[in-house]
Amino acid sequence: MDRETPSAPRLKSRRWSAALLVPCAALLVYCESRQAPEQAAPKAPPFRIATSASASPPRPSASFSLTDFRPLLTAPELASVATLLENGAPEAAARELDAWLAKSPPALEQRFRYDFLLARLHEQGGQLAAALIAYGRVGGADSPLTNYARAGEARMLLALGRPKDALARLATLPDDAPVSRLKWPVLAEAARKVGDRATAIGAYSRSLAATPPGADKADGELAFANLLLSGPASAEHEAEALQALDLARRIQDEMSASRQTLAAAKADEERALAALAEPARNAHRTRDAAGMLDHVHALLDAREFDQAEQAAGEALAALSEAERKATTGCELQFSLGKARASRRNYARAGDAFEALLADCSDQDLRARAEFMAGKAAASAGDHMLAVKRFAALEQEAPKNSLADDARLYGALSYLELGVEARFTELLSSLPDDYPDGDMVVEGTFRLALRRLDKQDWAGAARVLERVLDNKYSTGARAADFAGRERYFHARALAATGETERPLAEYEALIKDLPLSYYMLCAYSALAQVDHARAEAALNSALTAVASGPIVVTNRAEFSGLGFTRALELFGVGDLDDGARELDALGLGETARPELLWGLSKLYADAGSVKLSHAAARRALSASPSSWPADAWLDAWKLAYPAPYHEIVEREAKRTALNPALIYAIMREESAFDPDAESPADAYGLMQLIVPTAKTMARPLGLPFDRNSLKRPNVNVALGASVLAKYASAFPEDPLLAIPAYNAGPLNPKKWLHERPNADFDIWVELIPYVETRRYMKRVLSSRAAYAFLYQREAFAEFATLPAKIQ
């Protein structure tokens, strides 16, 4: 059954500076407009704004029209500028834009946009004096981008060695608007250079408060620590040294920081200690228990499990017996166990959790430890100990949110021990004992799955009937869970000889859950019995989609200058600052699907596939009930974009793969972020590790280093080669290339050997790795969606799943 596996890879994207966002946006816009599939020619989804009685009347200078929004670099007359950017020549792009402006000056009221774009191009190309002049033209006039241009002027003045002039320009900027994020770091450095330590210290504090955790913040903290340590000896200096010490230690907790930054922070820690008087130095020589716990948590979050185990062990060794039994000591003990479990040292992890249970009285922490101890024992194969720990949790904390989890995992351990009667007893009573538990549906499905695997169809149907109306089954669920109980209930009924009821349920699933995994299962099952009826159900679902545009209801925020600034920033490719303007309005993280669709289109028009896809994917998961027809066809294409079209088509042809599968893998692996990195050191669009890439690269004459794997043409070529190799390893079941891509080819071969000729849908449910099982479903769903959106004539092939695994 399920074993403890790492969660799906967390991706950490390189943070682009504002100066670097322009070419990235322009390149993507240009590539998509040039490379889009013929049947998916770029077309603005017909979004429109509806008037709302609660909304303020739009101001003429701040009207909002998604359909009218067009970034500058998508204009045909600037195609040559976009081409130069695509080729990595921002300096030449700036010259080209400058020449175009001289020949075809835009209307006076639009000139600020072109000047701002020109300034950014000059800045990126290293032409600081020219950038200063262009920013100055915008900053000296009244436009939505005036303050952003003045911030750019200050940046250029500082870089040109004119800190006093930079300070004068910064004095014109507000302190509390989104643009102030650009003000504080420049102010801090300029003030430092002119010797105004007080202003610099205040500016660093403001800058760091507005900077999210990450490598950029660590670099800012390092500069701040160096400033604090550079002060003259005084009564305040010891306080500043303590502040620098805290900063240096915080930097060392930021695992995304560069090695150089981490090394400098370690040196600053020693400098700060040396600046303290001896009593203070002795008191702060090592971190206190809370500080060590923060450090261990940071290491765990960064998946540095070896270091986390060592740090937690050292911290516990330094504590007294009483301190180990206090809250922080108990949390350190829990973290020690978690680190060991993450290293798959399950026996020693269990020892750590057992030690916590012997010493600590906090009920919630004890429940967590008992649960983790049970999981560790099960992962180590000691299922007798596992059931003991899970039972102890239920007995000691029956109201804890983990109690029903313990029931489920205890039952699974009994099944591993071969005590099926106890497995059945525990899961059969789960809905009665924990009526509100969030594991009731999962536990009941596991019980039904056991019957399905034995082809006890009537028994499986009876079990599933208990949870068909459960709130966790009928409510919003991830796409790879939605409809699971409904589908297998219908499947079981059909296997018992019932006819109309299961077929009607298959039809309902096709209508209710468009292009989801269990919709594909339902379509396949229905088509196997009555292909015409399956096609009719699909066509009925499509014709039921309401016609007309997706409406983004007008809101008061759309009528303000903040929204206007966001649109203008998107228009010149400054996605970073545009998104911050939306955040300041409370729009950036809204869960309202209609607004997310609008934001997705804005990002798409501004040239960011990554951001557009993220917003659309979130919107679609919030309201997945509309099939991609009419306006929804364009909306779904935002959630399932097809960038890098020429590259994908070329590699699909070379490897005899369908582009739909390549795009599906790309979508699930990196969410279209070419700079994506995983904690397992996998890189790029298709998340390749260097050793695997190296094997594929040699025959193709391609590079395989970390930076090369972030280039789409290299990454897609190598990823497609890997995928094709895995597909060829399963000639009878080429879809097994999907779990092979996630878990390696040996595991699917093992699972195939264990269950030959099994029903495909049940075989997928019995994939023992949680991550791989869910990955298989998501990729099959995405593959079908890409076929529907871009290869409609071949959709039936992709919608029909195999009946058996060969």
Question: Would you write up a description of this structure?
Answer:
By secondary structure, the chain is mainly α. It is built from 44 helices and 4 strands.
Radius of gyration: 29 Å
Q: What topology, given as strand order, has the largest sheet?
A: 1-2
Rounded mean pLDDT score: 88
- Overall outline: globular
Number of DSSP helical runs = 44
Terminus-to-terminus distance: 21 Å
* Percent range for β-strand residues: under 5%
Could you estimate the helical fraction of the residues in percent? 55-70%
Q: Count the beta strands.
A: 4
Uncertain regions spanning at least 5 consecutive residues = 1-46, 51-65
Question: Quaternary state, please?
Answer: single chain
**Which structural class should the secondary elements be placed in?**
mainly alpha
Strand count, sense and barrel status of the largest sheet are: 2 strands, parallel
List the helices and strands and how they pair.
Layout: H1 18-35, E1 48-50, H2 79-86, H3 90-103, H4 111-124, H5 128-139, H6 146-159, H7 163-170, H8 180-193, H9 197-209, H10 215-229, H11 235-252, H12 259-275, H13 278-283, H14 289-301, H15 305-317, H16 321-325, H17 327-342, H18 346-359, H19 363-379, H20 383-396, H21 403-416, H22 420-428, H23 430-433, H24 440-453, H25 457-465, H26 471-474, H27 484-495, H28 500-512, H29 517-529, H30 531-543, E2 551-553, H31 561-571, H32 575-584, H33 593-606, H34 609-622, H35 631-639, H36 645-655, H37 659-670, E3 682-683, E4 688-689, H38 690-700, H39 712-728, H40 737-743, H41 746-754, H42 760-765, H43 770-790, H44 795-799
Parallel strand pairs: 1-2
Antiparallel strand pairs: 3-4
Helix pairs in contact: 1-2, 1-4, 2-3, 3-4, 4-5, 5-6, 6-7, 6-8, 7-8, 8-9, 9-10, 10-11, 10-12, 11-12, 14-15, 14-17, 15-17, 17-18, 17-19, 18-19, 19-20, 19-21, 20-21, 21-22, 22-24, 24-25, 25-27, 27-28, 28-29, 28-30, 29-30, 31-32, 33-34, 34-35, 36-39, 37-43, 38-39, 39-40, 40-43
